[in-house]
Amino acid sequence: MPVSEQLQVDILAAPETASSILYGLYDVMSLPGSAWPRVVRTDPGSPLVNPRIVARDGNPFSCRGGVPVAPQATLDEADDATVICVPNMTIPIEGDPRGKFPDEVAWLRARYEAGATIATTCSGSILLAEAGLLEDADATAHWAYRDMYRRYYPRTRFRPERTLCFAGEGDRLILTGGMASWQDLALYLIGRFVGPEHAAQAARFYIIGDRTHGQLPFAALPKRPLHDDETIQACQFWVADSYADSDAVAKMQSMSGLPARTFGRRFKAATGFTPLEYVQAVRIEEAKQMLETGAASIDAVAAEAGYQDARAFRRLFRRRTGVSPADYRRRFRYARMHGREGDS
């Protein structure tokens, strides 16, 4: 997606907004296309998303906790976003939410009618209820708002058990549960509007998700050479495309024109890996991408990555990542972020 075709994402802010969610969404949504290439490649990419903080007017203010906010556009100016994010708003669970945020509610209704997709986190969904967009629809927020929905929005089916709900024409209303669900929302939006591979990259870059097994499942092998040995660089570039070759190590050594022992020493000095370890690392990295974005069986992924013995592949994968290929797929495969698998 060229820079000129960046996805415009507006993030609604108000004094009642939690700064962690406001700036968390802004930060993660600015990642696709730029941050990941800096980690794994020599060529920095261009941002694919343009996040923008929008508020009632352009005057700076402080949101919850006294954190300063400088809006980048007013409600009147913000009329071109494909996606609008509504973070949580401080709305007391025992209070009456009706009539609050009238300008923001009117803007959201107008933007939805103009074709925008609106995504909310936690109590942000109440603004959609106020706009009349959730009648006869499923909705979610933090479970503590169940009674509020029941009392003030009886035509909305509040689903406290769900972390992700869809409503509206073409699923253009996306609602997530508690406050920490902004991370799930960001990954969902990236997967749906930019691409599942970018959602997986964002999860791995920010280490979003289950961290039971530490950082290894999130780590990536940098594809850029970090040394000046041009002979070894040529071998690295070759194996990036030919990792599945059964004689990859021997062919790299032959390509280098070096005696085997000399090649091994120089490769280790330049990369920190033995030639075999490096080939295995590249293969596992490619297998990760297949698991993230495809539906092929584990055995098929193993073969595609260069391993005819699927059991050996599973052992090596676990040793390098800390998890099995199946567990890795469950964590990082964002095809589910495109449809109804995610709304339960």
Give the N-terminus to C-terminus distance in angstroms: 31 Å
Mean pLDDT across residues? 86
What's the tally of helices? 14
The SS-based structural class is alpha/beta
What overall geometry do the principal axes of the alpha carbons give?
elongated
Succession of helices and strands: EHHEEEEEHEHEHEEEHHHHHHHHH
Major sheet characteristics: 7 strands, mixed
What strand order characterises the main sheet? 5-2-1-6-7-11-10
The low-confidence runs, each spanning 5 or more residues with pLDDT under 50, are 211-218, 335-344
Give the gist of this structure.
The chain has 344 residues and is of the alpha/beta class. 42% of the residues lie in helices and 12% in strands.
Which secondary structure elements does this structure contain, and how are they paired or packed?
Layout: E1 7-12, H1 19-29, H2 35-40, E2 49-55, E3 61-63, E4 67-69, E5 73-74, E6 83-86, H3 102-113, E7 117-121, H4 125-130, E8 138-139, H5 146-152, E9 157-158, E10 164-167, E11 173-176, H6 182-193, H7 196-206, H8 230-242, H9 248-256, H10 260-271, H11 275-293, H12 298-305, H13 310-321, H14 325-332
Parallel strand pairs: 1-2, 1-6, 2-5, 6-7, 7-11, 8-9
Antiparallel strand pairs: 3-4, 10-11
Helix pairs in contact: 1-6, 6-7, 8-9, 11-12, 11-14
